[in-house]
Amino acid sequence: MSAPRPLRLLSLLLASSGIAVAHDHAQDPTLRASEPDTPAIASPVVVPLDAGNRAALPRHAVEAVAHGQTLRCEGVSLTALLQAGDAMPDTPLRGPHLARYVLVQGRDGYRALFSLAELDATLGNAQVVLADRCDGQPIGDDAGPLRLVVPGDSRPARGVRQVDSITVIVAP
Ligand SMILES: Nc1nc2c(c(=O)[nH]1)N[C@H]1C(S)=C(S)[C@@H](COP(=O)(O)O)O[C@H]1N2
Ligand SMILES: [Mo]
After folding, report:
1. pLDDT for 30-84, tens place per residue?
2. CA 24 to ligand 1 center in whole angstroms
3. Burial class (CB in 10 A: 0-12, 13-18, 19+), 41
4. In a domain, 37, yes or no
5. Do residues 22 and 87 both lie within one domain?
6. 39 found inside a domain
7. Which residues contact 18 (CB under 8 A, 6 or more apart)?
8. Residue whose CA is closest, atom 17 of ligand 1?
9. CB-based burial of residue 136 (10 Å sphere; 0-12 exposed, 13-18 middle, 19+ buried)?
10. Which of 110, 130, 146 to mutate to test the pocket of ligand 1 (most atoms within 8 A of CB)?
11. Per-residue pLDDT reduced to its tens digit, 150-168
12. How many domains does the chain have?
């Protein structure tokens, strides 16, 4: 059975006038202009770890439990390092930044991640340190020269030793 006559007439009229009923241009991502105030976030962003970059940042002392011993380590805040490397805004995270994470990898391929929101001072406010000295000395090759210290974690599993890359990624 076909539509009642007045409805058929109405859709005919709309079609001939060029008004698209079924195709909403505002919903079509291929037709929508990009929004100027939300630029795409680069991904991945590789964070420079060289001594020159780290030297510009404030240093923090932190205790690390390693092999059952407590070490006094020092280094830079992971949050500050990411902010200085343009890998994280230095303002409270919003919108798509809440779906970004930082992947820390060791020379042996061991990896651990943190969400940017964990690190944001107004959200998780986690104090994570990228250490380059423990017990007053540079960190030896077995664990260094750079290691992560995560004092807020109950186990040291995210304390990546021999850190060789830090990358910030937008979750797929
Ligand atoms: N590069 C690297 N870092 C690592 C690991 C690893 O296998 N490789 N193991 C993690 C785990 S599971 C723990 S519990 C701690 C142990 O640190 P420790 O061996 O210095 O006590 O290191 C973490 N960091
Ligand atoms: Mo572990």
Report:
1. 665 655 566 799 999 999 999 999 999 999 999 988 778 899 999 999 999 999 9
2. 54
3. middle
4. no
5. no
6. no
7. none
8. 66
9. exposed
10. 110
11. 999 999 999 999 999 999 9
12. 2
